[in-house]
Design goal:
Chain lengths: 144, 144
């Protein structure tokens, strides 16, 4: 029921709140956790080729940061006695989250209600909302 | 983290799927489960006074049925070692669920993604959606 957890994160405060819940689920049967970070590919495109932004360098930086942050989380989870690994993907966040849930055969998705933007007026972040709607797996939503 | 669980139900199939999850959470620290059934008061009113419908009788019937079904769930939960109690309240479903979560100071809400209507096109039932948006506590959404 809870054996394989997919934990998508953008490393925001709300998202990080969810880590404690993942750890607590070990006693409910969780064995493996896949930490997923999606680099939003739409921010890596420029309509104007002459804008002079080095997207390759940007991409590398983002990946480096993602690796670092993901490693920290994986360490925390392993300390808690869970088997954990991480994946960093490029793509459209909610699509990659849903795809990864399928590929990893996740039994549960644990996700923060909001991400980095955390708009006060939005009672639910856009990525979290889509994941909750479209996932076939149960979703544990950790509110901000 | 999971000590007191609020489990709102309309006894529909999707809702009943969630009971297993409540039971499994005992191992993760759950001690008490509050099973809540809200009798939708909006279906117990008519704007026209010319039609004589005995709403009091309907309500009684609904309460009786809710009591019976609710008690079965309590039994299941207690067998698993959880303390459990049943609340049957007449009111606006999502408002009552949120109010109860507040009053009972629950640690988690476990809810089915859909209820009785279970409209195919709706990826999330209206009551569940409202609860997920407005709850301040974590919500475990069990999908259909």
């Amino acid at each position: 029921m809870f054996d394989r957890i997919l934990y998508p994160t953008d490393f925001s405060d709300v998202s990080m709140k969810a880590v404690n819940y993942v750890k607590q689920l070990k006693d409910a049967g969780t064995r493996e956790v896949t930490v997923l970070h999606v680099i939003d590919e739409r921010t890596l495109l420029a309509p104007d080729v002459l804008s002079g932004i080095d997207f390759i360098a940007l991409q590398d930086e983002l990946r480096r940061i993602a690796d670092e942050e993901c490693n920290k989380i994986v360490e925390q989870l392993r300390e808690g006695g869970l088997s954990a690994r991480f994946i960093v993907k490029n793509g459209v966040p909610f699509l990659e989250i849903l795809r990864t849930a399928q590929e990893e055969k996740a039994s549960l998705i644990v996700i923060g209600s909001h991400g980095k933007s955390n708009l006060e007026e939005m009672l639910l972040g856009s990525v979290s909302e889509k994941v909750i709607r479209k996932a076939v797996q149960p979703v544990l939503v950790i509110k901000r | 983290m999971f000590e007191r669980i609020l489990y709102p139900t309309d006894f529909s199939d999707v809702s009943m799927k969630a009971v297993r999850y409540v039971k499994q959470l005992k191992d993760a620290g759950a001690k008490e489960a509050i099973v809540l059934h809200v009798i939708d008061e909006r279906s117990l009113v008519l704007t026209s006074h010319e039609i004589a419908i005995d709403f009091a009788a309907i309500e009684n019937e609904l309460r009786k049925a809710a009591d019976e079904r609710g008690n079965k769930i309590l039994e299941e939960l207690r067998e698993r070692g959880l303390e459990a109690r049943l609340k049957i309240v007449k009111g606006n479903p999502f408002k009552t669920i949120l109010k109860t979560a507040q009053e009972e100071d629950v640690s988690l809400i476990v809810i089915g993604s859909h209820g009785r209507s279970n409209v195919e096109e709706m990826l999330l039932g209206s009551v569940s959606e409202a609860v997920i948006r407005k709850a301040v506590r974590p919500v475990l959404v069990v999908k259909r």
